[in-house]
Amino acid sequence: MNSNRVDEVAALREQKKLDRQAEIEAREAKEAEEAKSHAANMKRIAKKMAKIEAGNSAVVEEPVVEEPVVEEPVVKEPKKVAKKKVAAKKPAAKKRGRPKGSTNKK
């Protein structure tokens, strides 16, 4: 191998190391952001659970009032008959050879 090729390979290895380090830093930043978001969600859930335990529920349950059910007559719809698909007719193929009734015999 010539010295130019050796230098190129060394430069590529160094670039790969830098790329891997950048990927690691990006992944760690993303994980930290997700952890921060998760902690905020857990804090919000804890507040809601504390309100529920204290009896100051944000959701107020209303008493269920039953309304009389009026039955409407059931009308059956007629069954729909599927239409048959009509295949498109292909144009007649051109016949080859001498036309019928032709007297062009030799």
Written overview of the protein:
The mean pLDDT is 80. The chain has one helix spanning 3-54. It is an all-alpha fold and 106 residues long.
Chart the SSEs and their pairings.
Blueprint (H helix, E strand, L loop, with lengths): L2 H52 L52
Unreliable runs, pLDDT <50, ≥5 residues?
A: none
Please state the structural category: mainly alpha
Which H/E pattern describes the elements?
A: H
Q: Which shape, going by the Cα principal axes?
A: flat
Strand content: under 5%
Report how far the terminal alpha carbons are from each other.
Answer: 82 Å
Fraction of residues in H or I helices: 40-55%
In total, how many beta strands? 0
User: What is the count of DSSP helices, taking H or I runs of 4+ residues?
Assistant: 1
pLDDT averaged over residues: 80
Measured on Cα atoms, how large is the radius of gyration?
41 Å
> Biggest sheet, in brief?
none
